[in-house]
Design a protein that fits this description.
- The complex is a heterodimer.
- By secondary structure, chain A is of the alpha/beta class.
- Chain A has one domain: HUPs (Rossmann fold, 3-Layer(aba) Sandwich), CATH 3.40.50.620.
- In chain A, the strands form 3 sheets. Chain A has a 9-stranded mixed beta sheet with strand order 11-10-9-12-8-1-6-7-13, sandwiched between helices. In chain A, strands 2-5 form a two-stranded antiparallel ribbon. Chain A has a two-stranded antiparallel sheet with strand order 3-4.
- By secondary structure, chain B is of the alpha/beta class.
- Helix content of chain B is about 30%, strand content about 25%.
- In chain B, helix 7 links the parallel strand 16 and strand 17.
- In chain B, helix 3 packs across helix 4 and helix 5 runs parallel beside helix 9.
- The chains are: A alpha/beta, B alpha/beta.
- Chains A and B meet through helix 3, helix 4, strand 9, strand 10 and strand 11 of A and helix 4, strand 7, strand 9, strand 10 and strand 13 of B.
- Strand 11 of chain A pairs antiparallel with strand 13 of chain B, so a sheet runs across the interface.
- The structure holds flavin-adenine dinucleotide and adenosine monophosphate (AMP).
- Flavin-adenine dinucleotide sits at the interface of chains B and A.
Chain lengths: ~260, ~325
Amino acid sequence: MKEIGIIVCAKQIPDPEAPLSDVSVNAETQEVVVDAPPVISPFDENALEVAIRLKEELGAKITVLSMGKKVSDTVLRKSLVAGADELILLQDDAFEKLDSHSIASALAGAIRKIGEFDLVLTGRQAGDWDSGQVGLILGEILGLPCINLAREIKVEDGNVVVKKVIPEGYERVRAKMPALVTVSNEVGELRYISRTKMLKMLKGVGSIPSWSAEDLGITLETLQKMGIMTLSSPPDMRRDCQFIEGTPDELSDKLAAVFKSLR
Amino acid sequence: MNDVMILGDVKEGSLDIRTLELLGVGKKLAGDLGVGLSVVLMGDAVSTVAEQAASYGPDRVYKLEHPLLKGVNPDMWLASLQQACKQINPKIVLLSHSLIGMELGPRLACRLNTRLTTDCIDLSIDPEDGLLLRTKPVSGGNAISVFKCPGEPQLATVRANVFDPAEAADGNGEIVDMVPEIDESMITVESIEVVKEEVVALDKADVVISGGAGLGDEDGFEILQDLSKALSKSFGSVMIGCSRVAVDKGWISSDHQVGLTGTMISPDIYIAVGISGAIQHLVGMIKSKKIIAINTDPGCNMFNVADYGVVEDYEKVVPALVKRLEELS
Ligand SMILES: Cc1cc2nc3c(=O)[nH]c(=O)nc-3n(C[C@H](O)[C@H](O)[C@H](O)COP(=O)(O)OP(=O)(O)OC[C@H]3O[C@@H](n4cnc5c(N)ncnc54)[C@H](O)[C@@H]3O)c2cc1C
Ligand SMILES: Nc1ncnc2c1ncn2[C@@H]1O[C@H](COP(=O)(O)O)[C@@H](O)[C@H]1O
């Protein structure tokens, strides 16, 4: 069987799991500032892991697409070290703070330019704006069958077969490829890559192609911004914590008393 | 028509509480705009819920019944919803940020060529241009953003448990039958089987005991289960929750997950065991009446939001506590 083509859309974002002390809100620039290195959005790493497993099982060519005003290839190269075959950056000054539809249109442009593919994988939502839209809109624009919130993905006879999260458990669904699937964390974490392997492999990676809006045939007028009116800090969540101390036995006495008082 | 239109969720044959919340906020927005409120209900048989919806005083309830709308096939629901929007021509469309709303929202936005804001916690009308101001937590909850987008209809999905549910009103809304034009050829994703699993209704619990990465392994949840048994003698319904990392590690199924991409809860007591207090977790449990944290790291963020804190290895304190509670009962 011919190896399948998998496109993984991976967004570079400020680390959403950075300690809260490293996170601040700049209302003026309308940005959440994180004092830590950027990362690949966590659910996109889940999507990449799925792609690599399919590659190991069936053979596949994995292309990672990452779009932004400025994408750091040091962050995204991790995908190549993990097992992707190709990384393409979509970079343009015009790609700043775009709305979901504009991002999806640009990604669709890139996917059409790539041409052949069987499966497009995205994360369920990006950890910066928590929007959860780009994947499904991309599927609509490309006219693909769309499956949301996959917790397991298999490929069988030209079909993608997915266990999809539903309120009462899961639904097994099937779509003819090419198709688009958004991936949830239940599929499992991206495999661990040691620092030494990372450093060694990075040396072997050549230059990474970068496409601009023009390369994608996008006219700038069609790109729309997110429409942020204000960005502000959330209400304070702090409470006055009463620390309970002592040996485990003393602690359990005191905790039992707390529970009694809360009854 | 310019109505505010909401899509109802039906659960076990009656209107889901989320729909009542949508009715609540929808009524307010319709009032501010001076327009009507419509409810759209879809399914294979929705007459009873349609009457139920009508009793909350919307102007119109659109009933879209079709055998292919049984269960939730997104292709069928999307096509029907798109047709309903075309006929009703609403100014605003609200969906709940439920699993189905999360799926239909972006696809509907694309098909109607409008812009969606997901998971909104506040909605109001900009008096200058009549557009929807959409307030949404971003970056897991590290910031709150207000968005305004062009396009019609104005489209948003709404977070659960934020807006007050509508109360039954006088005035009976008109029930309108609408026939969706759908057929099997429009199905692109085929359902093979629906597998029902035992899922916890965390939002119904009085007490939630949650475990995180700090449990160290799967067996940690057995210790929490012991505590759950001990506490259930004095408290109503006690359930087990978890952080995302516990799910990622395969220790527990994702229906137990509390947080932004799990369940949002507000129990009487929340007990966080070995959970650091990442923002995406906090937004799911911060409304708990009392929060108790057990964590070996005195500097962890969970203590900043807790009412009671215990800095100790959970494997030492929880079994001792279980024993004590059993002695007392
Ligand atoms: C878009 C997005 C959505 C997300 N959605 C969610 C969500 O819905 N829910 C969610 O929970 N997370 C979510 N996350 C993940 C979140 O950012 C954190 O990674 C996660 O909550 C951390 O889980 P944890 O606290 O169990 O693990 P850790 O952060 O690793 O914390 C483990 C804690 O256990 C303590 N500990 C260690 N050993 C012991 C011991 N023996 N006894 C007691 N304590 C001990 C440690 O001190 C530490 O504080 C999301 C992230 C993103 C980016
Ligand atoms: N700028 C981007 N570059 C690559 N992929 C993206 C980008 N934005 C969104 N995606 C993909 O779409 C998913 C959903 O993003 P969002 O709708 O922004 O929450 C992400 O998990 C990514 O897989």
